[in-house]
Amino acid sequence: MLEKILKMIRKMWVIWVMMLLWWPTTSSNVKPGCQEKCGDVSVPFPFGIDNLYCAKNESFLLKCNRSKTPATLMFGENIATLNISIEEGIVVASIDSAMRCYNESGLMQETIFDQSIDLGGGLFRFSDTRNKLTAFGCDTLAGMGDWNGSFVSFCGSFCSDNRSVSMNITGDSCSGIGCCQTPLPKSLNSLNITLDTIENHKQCWKFNKCDYAFLADESFDISEFRQSLERRQMMKSNITIEWVAKEETCEAGKNSPDYACGRDARCVYSKNGQGYRCLCNEGFRGNPYLPEGCEDFNECEEPENYPCEGTCKNTLGNYTCSCPLGMRGDGKVGCQGYRILTIAAVAGATIFVVIIGVLAFIAFKQKKKERNFFENGGMILKNQRVRIFSEAELAKATKNYDTSQFLGEGAYGFVYKGVLPDKTQVAVKKSKEVDKTQINQEFQREIGIVSQINHKNIVKLLGLCLETKVPILVYEFISNGTLSHHIHDKRSRLLKTWKNRLKIAAEIALALDYFHCLANPPIIHGDVKSANILLDENGTAKVSDFGTSVLISPGQNLMVSKVQGTFGYLDPEYLMTGILTEKSDVYSFGVVLVELLMGMKPGSCVSYGKNINMIQYFMSSLENNSLNQVLGFEVSDDDAEMEEIEEVAELAKRCLSSSVKRPSMQEVAEELVRLKRLNYNFSAQQNNEETAKLLGESSFSNLEITQQDTHSVNLSEIDNYSDSI
User: Fold this and answer.
1) Of residues 264, 513, 527, 571, which has the active-site annotation?
2) Is residue 527 annotated as a catalytic residue, yes or no?
3) CA-angle at 175, arms to 174 and 181, nearest 5°
């Protein structure tokens, strides 16, 4: 009886062991009963570990070295495998680099190591797209070739000075300075890597003791590797090996009895591997090399990868997506229409909300306009000479701010051309600061002051719209563009003669003199430049753009927290100290004078022995008495005209000197008006018909505006649209 029981126990034990050996693992990547991992590396079929049964053939049989922790998967004898990919058909492995070290005597024989790799049968090739031969050193030649001697390739690495390799390498690429790289040919399954030197490291052994050469794949990090160059030890790198199931075409493989691809798998040919490998068909996942390795998966469980706007249903190798009731189209791409329940729910709510919304919007809009009008000082400003526009008037004038009416973008707003009902053309400026909550009393007073400026050489503010959160400014429209445009556009004829240039310079000076001396309180413009001088149809200059202008008390200077203006025109002393004075405008005007004389841009450089800017070039021409050679326009043969030009040049030189030596704007204006009169008188002698007109020119505008309180405020909202024309 006991013997029968023991026999039964032995039979059950054998059955249990057999079940363990043949029972499928939880993964579908290996054959039943085979080990899936070696250490941390998964080993999918057609690869196998230790047992030939687990691999497709001997070429795919790998060894698992369990003497280390964790265990190491070995490809061949000395190549540690890090990863195997079925989808990409690659093996990522780690190899030692070729190495040689040097001292003052030359090559250290004990450090010589040349790398030699054989991938065995024809199923494995070095990846020609992911691997590169890489070498580091300062007197280094790295060579590679296959075992058959069918190809040889080299790259050289040298250093530019007596610095280490890591200091010679710049960035994350090898350019031949400190390191070099060269690609591999296709279909390479064996490789010898060697190192050599040209001068035996005689000049560089102190700072470059060792050279290295190795294959490196796309994961190689140059910046990380160069940190360990000085350790004088063997280094490792990752390589990518491509593999195929068999060295034949897909057509030949499908007709072969040992075709490697399983059910629901497709064949893909590899040019580098000279053979085919397998991939699961669309809609299937798994191991395509196992007979039933490719399995259908449920796309509906992965909406981020397989979108569906309706009802999702999984099918074999695919999925369907039906649009909701009341909608049509392909749910995978997008359904058109609306759900019936949604339509019913939304219809009633929409009608109610629309009615309430329209009524509320009308009331809110009206209340908002009234609040903005009072907050923007409407009660005060409506009694000034400035015109008050409604928001609707300006929207109509600008065709609702249509892009066809867009003139440009100023420092603080967008400018549009508008036409009023009386056919008057205007420039309408909408502020960018749409989130501003209120306009303070100082700003209201500034609006009142600027609205009273009435000088023929200053762009006039025609009106305001106070119904918006930030007032909309309406300026007179100047049709002939900017002075900068006419100076630098060679096609322009407006500045062909010195007479016109002198006239414009005098008009600008008169406007700035008005700001400094006749306005009450005085105004510092703060951004005088040719782009802020507009010219009307008669060629009359109009100063514009008050975005950086400030009001000051007479004789007062202003310390600013942020320097504003245009580089090239800014006063150097203002840049250094942050103190804005009337002399800052004088300096900027001096730059404009030089620009009128030379026809150059302030930021441009000229080759004059060495690169110098426009101002330096101008000063040099005065010192060398070569002013006539740098003028940007044609000068008549008359000596009197050249004398006038030289006087203006000297005036510009004084404007560009230190602030204590600069003339006031009044002195500049008087001098230019005097020269202008002389020029006109001379022209009158040649053309009596123009005498009456020329003798009628006035020197200064005597318009003066007053204000009870004198203090400094910011005119950031009153800038003009000159940059936009």
Assistant:
1) 527
2) yes
3) 55
